[in-house]
Each structure stands twice: as C-alpha cells, then as structure tokens.
Design goal:
By secondary structure, the chain is α/β, with parallel strands linked by helices. Helix content is 28%, strand content 21%. The protein is built from ten helices and 15 strands. The strands form three sheets. Strands 2, 3, 4, 5, 8, 9, 10, 12, 13, 14 and 15 form an eleven-stranded mixed β-sheet that branches. A hairpin with a 7-residue loop joins strand 6 and strand 7. The longest helix has 25 residues. The radius of gyration is 24 Å and the shape is globular.
Length: 371
C-alpha cells in the first residue's frame, strides 16, 4: 500500500506562514545588530539635532580671510597664523579652560604630497594657536575611511600634532554612541562622542575633488563624525552633507589649500593630480568656506547642491562678500600686503573668487578690486 507523502493544503499554508515569520524576524535582528546607522527618513520626527560650538563670538575685524603666497614664499604655519590674526586672533574663539577638538581630514592612507588628507603643518599650527589661547585640552581626531592607525601615521598628522602638545585620539567602537539626528536623510546613526562632547570644535578640511560630491572640504568633512556604514549615504550625498552641516556648527573653519587634489578625489594617489596653491581660508561660515574654496579646484558653487541646501537651512551664506572679507598676500621678495576685499555687488562673487584663488598661479589673472 502506497502512502501519499505530499503535504496537505493546510500544511503548506502553515509552513509558509512560519517561513514568512522567520524571515521577518531575521530582518529585524539583522537591522538591530548589523545596520548601525541607517536611512530612516520616515522615522525622523521633531527638530533636527544641532551641536553648536560657536559660543559667544565677540567679533573681530573680519569673518572671512584668504591668506595666500607665491609658491615657497611662506610656510603653512605662517599662513595659518596670519589668517587667524586677521580674524582677530585665536582668543576670539577659544577661552581659558576650553576642551577643544581639532577635526582635520585624516580619512586616507596617503602622504601629504598626495593631498588626500589635511596638511600636517596646518594642523600643528592650529594646535599651537589653540594651546596659546588657553585651552585645557586639545584633541586631534577623525573617523578614518582606511585603517585609522595607518592614516594617522602616514598623513604625518599624528607625529606633528603630538609634537606640539595635542592629544591624538584614534577612533574606536566604544567612542561612538547612537544619536537621533532627525535629518532628511540622516536619522539614527552612531556618532563620534569625542567630537560632539567638546567645548569648541575647529574644522580643518583639505580642499579637494570628490568623484560624487564634485568638491569636498568644510561641509563634507563632517562625514568623519559618523560611524556605521556611511558609504550608504552616497546615494543621496548632497542631502546627507547638508544634514551633517546642520548638525555640526563649528567654532571656526580653516580650509587647507596648501596642496590641492584637482582630480580623482577623494582618495587620490597620483601626485600629478595635485597642485601647490599655498592658500589658507579661515572663516566662521562653513558654507562660505566651500563657496569660495571650490574655486581652488576650478569648480563653481552653483554646481554643488549642498551649498544651496545649507544656505536655505540658515547654516551660512554662499556670498562670502557679506563677511567683511580680507586678503593677505605674501610675495617671494618679502613683501606682505593686507587688503579689505571690496567686491562690488554687481560683480559675480564666483568670478572674484576665481581671480583671488588663482592669483599667484596664473600671473595673467586680473586682480580683484581691493582697498
């Protein structure tokens, strides 16, 4: 006698229900334990989280300074010092006893000549200024993309920052905690506590090309505040950059334009893709820093949607002319010129920025109207 081994209709329905339940449970477990940091726009509710490190700014002679020199006419240290002095000095931003975090770009296992990370001399100069202003603790850190130990060492930042008295902190899992950022793209993500729990934060990006964002410096440098699988954010990169810049409001932004990566960013690798520019941009406005800084690589701010989003959110302005801009020009013959930049309102600020950023590189460039 033959026994029918085929399951009944009832058994098929029951097994299917169990299978569906198991799959749903697996998805929940995977989400809970693997997907640390996610794309949860529909869950975002309430006001966006903001970490504002600007404090009570007493003001200074300028809120936007461009310091640049003819090639080899000055050092990165001198350019940083002069740029900060032109804004009123570091004591404008740092008070006695402040716990200060300096956030360079230390994302990549590259040397300074490859221009993928912030220049170590620029970082060291800022550490010295912050310590002289009375900070009780000065930390240099970033959440690297490549192996952190290799990035910190090969970039030269670990050695130079430690030598001038900074506490260099490498990212580790226990230094992150999950926060609800309530951004349009960024909601619940692991955030680097070392960065968000300081009294003051100085943003020190390097100006360079980025294959997705087109340009990266001040606003995109905040990717280094996140843990988790942040490469997922590249699917809507402009919104995620605006979300991060909404979250992080630095005390001061100092853009490293000493050597600029013009192509094949953000990692670079080929020195032929870089260009020596010997430029430092110092400002209280991260949107303005990027609107001007992108001209260093030949980009225009209207091609960077995250700048428009940042301006619409009230993070800053793309019109750096409104920030009482100053220029410091250092020449190979020892001359040093200080100018107030008086750019007429009927002049395209982008054209003015191109003229300034290329002044020492292209000697045929007409200089901007200065006082």
């Amino acid at each position: 006698m033959t026994v029918d081994q085929r399951p009944s209709r009832r058994e098929i329905v029951t097994r299917s229900a169990y299978a569906a339940g198991a799959l749903a449970a697996s998805a929940l477990v995977a989400r809970r334990f693997y997907d640390q940091g996610g794309w949860q726009t529909r869950l975002a509710a309430g006001r966006r989280e903001v970490r504002d490190f600007r404090g009570r700014d007493p003001g200074g002679p300028s809120d936007f300074v461009v310091a640049h020199s003819e090639i080899d006419a000055s050092t990165p240290t001198a350019l940083v010092r002069r740029a900060v002095e032109a804004m009123g000095g570091m004591r404008r931003f740092i008070s006695n006893g402040d716990r200060v975090v300096i956030k360079p770009n230390i994302g990549w296992d590259r040397t300074p000549l490859q221009a993928a990370n912030s220049n170590p001399e620029v970082v060291a100069a800022i550490v010295e200024l912050v310590r002289a202003a009375g900070a009780s603790d000065v930390v240099v850190t970033d959440a690297s993309c490549n192996d952190p130990a290799r990035c910190f060492q090969r970039s030269g930042i670990w050695t130079r920052a430690h030598r001038v008295g900074a506490r260099v902190v490498l990212p580790a899992d226990h230094r992150f905690r999950t926060m609800r950022l309530r951004g349009e793209i960024l909601d619940e993500w692991p955030v680097y506590r070392t960065l968000v729990e300081a009294d003051k934060v100085i943003n020190v990006p390097v100006a360079k090309h980025h294959n997705l964002a087109k340009y990266t410096a001040a606003m995109k440098n905040w990717y280094g505040v996140l843990g988790g699988r942040r490469n997922r954010l590249h699917q809507s990169i402009d919104v995620s950059v605006a979300d991060l810049a909404t979250f992080m409001r630095p005390t001061l932004t100092i853009v490293d334009g000493i050597r600029v990566l013009l192509r094949n960013g953000p990692q670079g690798g080929n020195v032929d893709d870089t260009r020596r520019m010997d430029t430092i941009i110092a400002t209280v406005d991260q949107v303005a820093a990027d609107a001007f800084g992108c001209t260093l690589i030949g980009q225009r701010p209207e091609n960077l949607p995250y700048l428009r989003m940042g301006q619409e959110r009230g993070i800053g302005t793309a019109d750096w002319r409104t920030l009482r801009p100053r220029e410091l020009a250092l020449y190979a013959d020892g001359r040093e010129e200080h100018h107030a930049l008086l750019v007429p309102l009927d002049t395209d600020p982008v054209d003015a920025a191109f003229a300034l950023s290329q002044h020492f590189v292209d000697q045929a460039t007409t200089r901007v109207v200065l006082a």
